Amino acid sequence: MEATSRTGLLMVRSMMRFASIALSFCFAVLAPLAAAGTPSPIVGAGAHFAWVVFDRLKPDLERAAGRPIELHGRNSTLGMGCNAGIKTALASRPGRETFGFVCCPLDPREVADKGLRVFPIAREPILIVVNRDNPVSGLSAEQVRGIMRGDILNWREVGGDDEPIVLVTRLHCKKRPGHWKTILPDAARFRQQRLNVSSAADMEQRVGDFRGAIGHIGSTWNFRPDSRLKVLRIDGLEGDADNLRSGRYPFYRELAVVTGRQPSDDVLAVIREVQTGPAFRRVAAHYQLLPLNPAAGGASP
C-alpha cells in the first residue's frame, strides 16, 4: 500500500512538468503587457493551503499594489507546492515581479543558499480527520502519534469499534521542518502499511472511502458539501487559533511568503496587506489561523 506505482509517479511528474511550462508561459507574457502600457500582473504561486488565503484576499492585494495579481496553487497535485513557490519567487525580474507562498517553514540553510527572504503569515492548525461513521470523537496527542507509528492498529484500542485502522498520509516536503513533523518528526517513523496521497483532495476522498480511516489536513481546506469526514478533538481541544496561541494544540504548520533578496515595492505592498490588512484578519478568523504578526492581532513568529 505504501509504494507508489510507476504509472502514478510518471503521471505526477508529467503534471509537474505541465505546471512548470504553464508558469514559464505566464512569466513570458508579462513583459509584452508592460511594454504595451498595461500594468503587468504580479504573479504568485505555491502551496494550496497558502493559496487559499491569497485567493480570498486577491481584490485587497490588487488595491494595495495598484496592479493585477495572478495566482497559481489551487491544485497542489499539478506541481503547485512549496517547491513551485520557491521557484516562482526566484524568477522575479523588473517588470515581471513574482513571489511564492509555502505551507511549511524553510530551513535557514535553504533560505541562505537560495537567496530567499521569508515573510511569515500565519500558523495553521493541522486537523486530524476520520470517517464520519467512526464513533470516536477525540483522541489524545499521544494516541494520534501511536496510530501514526503503528503502535495502535485497531479502533477498539482507543474506545472505538473493533475495526482495523487505515492510515492515510501526505508527507510532503520531507526535508523541511514543521508541518506534519509536529505529529512525528520523520517519515520513517510513520507506519509502513499506509496509504500515501498526493493532495488534500485525495486525503478527503480516501478517508471518506474507508470507515476505519484516519488522516490529517490543514484547516484552510474547504470540505466538499458531501464530505464524509469529521474532525477529531485532540486532548479535548479544537484545532483553532486560540488553542494554537496558548500552545495547547500540538499539530500545525506555518504559512509564509517567499521572495528573492530584493522584492519590489509593489510586492512588499502585497505582503504587508497579507500580513496585517483587515481583510486578512477576517480570513484568519474564518479558517482559525493564528497570525504571526502582532499588528494583525497574532503572535510573534
Core attributes:
two-stranded parallel ribbon, ten-stranded mixed sheet, D-Maltodextrin-Binding Protein, domain 2, 12 strands, 2 domains, 9 helices, 20% strand, 301 residues, disordered N terminus, single chain, alpha/beta, elongated
Explain this structure.
This protein has 301 residues and is α/β, with parallel strands linked by helices. It has two domains: 6-123 and 253-296, 3-Layer(aba) Sandwich (D-Maltodextrin-Binding Protein, domain 2); 124-245, 3-Layer(aba) Sandwich (D-Maltodextrin-Binding Protein, domain 2). The protein is 37% helix and 20% strand. The chain contains nine helices and twelve strands. The strands form two sheets. Strands 1, 2, 3, 4, 6, 7, 8, 9, 11 and 12 form a ten-stranded mixed beta sheet that branches. Helix 2 links the parallel strand 1 (42-46) and strand 2. The longest helix has 30 residues, at 6-35. The two termini are 38 Å apart.
Summarize the structure.
The chain is α/β, with parallel strands linked by helices and 301 residues long. It has helices at 6-35, 48-65, 82-90, 108-114, 141-149, 200-209, 241-245, 265-276, 278-287, and strands spanning 42-46, 69-72, 98-102, 116-131, 138-139, 166-169, 195-196, 213-218, 229-231, 233-234, 252-260, 290-291.
